Amino acid sequence: MLRLAIQSKGRLNEDCTSLLQEIGISVDDSKRKFLSKSANFPLEVLYMRDDDIPQVVSAGTASLGIVGLNEVEEKGFDVKIEARLGFGGCRISLAIPKADEYPGPQYFNGKRIATSYPNILRRFLAGNGIQADIEVITGSVEIAPAAGIADAIFDIVSSGGTLVSNGLKEVEKVFFSEAVLISNGSLSDEDRKSLEEILFRIDSVKVSRGQKYILMNLPESAIEDAIKILPAMRSPTVMPLAAKGWCSLHSVVCADELWEKIRQLKAIGAEGILVLTVDKIIP
Ligand code: ATP
Ligand code: MG
Questions:
Q1: Is 128 exposed, middle or buried (0-12, 13-18, 19+ CB in 10 A)?
Q2: Helical axes 189-208 vs 13-22, angle rounded to 10°
Q3: How far apart are CA 254 and CA 153, in angstroms?
Q4: Burial class of 15 by CB neighbour count within 10 A (0 to 12, 13 to 18, 19+)
Q5: Residue whose CA lies nearest to ligand 1 atom number 3
Q6: Which listed ligand is nearest to 156 at the C-alpha?
Q7: Residue 256, helix vs strand vs coil
Q8: What are residue 155's DSSP bridge partners?
């Protein structure tokens, strides 16, 4: 049976739990157990700290894991990346005191840089021919310059607000991360089959993200124009209405383009437009 390691609490926990729910794998996590077996899929979930997930998957204690790509890259354990999951997005950046001028990576020559990601940082510095001291800190890296422990930091940034409130500015975006599904390279045939099913379901959820189902009443004479506006997966569904000369047209559109499409559809005579959320898309 597959064993999936996910973060027990923290930024990735909620998105992992909702992903499992969206792909129809029910796991009872109400009691916050260490290990929880799914009631409807051959899978058990192991709850742990995110730092340990790459190691546990590489050792085979868990066959699968969901963790930030940053942890996979930093820890360097031998695991296979099966899917990018589209949540937990962040970057690891170099930041320096706000008042300092930044001439380029050579700024860091001879500087002390505080980080929890020494391996990723070491690679960046080596790639740019920079000699700097790395101070490994777990915990609040962003306070290191003010505390006199370092001149600069290399840390996770998502909005940048924490940097600003600590008098720092981001100068190099070094590594881009998101949550990924990782596996142990050697799965049994049965586990590999279950994993294929999980990947198929994750794909349908990912495809449906940001998509809207749209339906409207349309004069029959405007169908050709509507098809040009709404290319859809194959082509839009057109159904007759009881009212003569009118039809109902259904399609799926990208949420980003929704308002622009609505404007164009109204211009060709669409009425009674309904927009619905899409749960899954199976191409
Ligand atoms: P744990 O107790 O499990 O070790 P943690 O404190 O190391 O938790 P979190 O802060 O919960 O970790 O972050 C988990 C992951 O979330 C990070 O490794 C990263 O991939 C992702 N992430 C996304 N945005 C951010 C952010 N703004 N700050 C930190 N991590 C982020
Ligand atoms: Mg951690």
A1: middle
A2: 100
A3: 39
A4: middle
A5: 49
A6: 1
A7: helix
A8: 93
User: What is the atom index within ligand 1 of the atom nearest the CA of 157?
Assistant: 27
Give 234-252 pLDDT, tens digit per residue: 678 999 999 999 999 999 9
> To which residue do tokens 């031998």 refer?
78
Q: In this structure, what token pair is assigned to residue 277?
A: 């959320």
**For residue 12, which ligand has an atom nearest its CA?**
1
Reported as a single tens digit per residue, the pLDDT across 34-90 is 899 999 999 999 999 999 999 999 999 999 999 999 999 999 999 999 999 999 999
227: buried, middle or exposed (CB in 10 Å: 19+, 13-18, 0-12)? Answer: middle
- The token pair at 181 is 């599904």
CA distance 24 to 38: 10
Q: Which long-range contacts (CB under 8 A, 24 or more apart) does 206-211 make?
A: 206/85, 206/86, 207/281, 207/283, 208/278, 208/279, 208/280, 208/281, 209/86, 210/254, 210/255, 210/256, 211/252, 211/253, 211/254, 211/255, 211/278, 211/281
Atom of ligand 1 nearest to the CA of 158: 27
- 50 C-alpha vs ligand 2 centroid, how far in Å? 5
User: CA 92 → CA 5, 65, 177, distances in Å?
Assistant: 23, 21, 8
Joined tokens for residue 14: 């909620």
Q: How far apart are CA 132 and CA 38, in angstroms?
A: 48
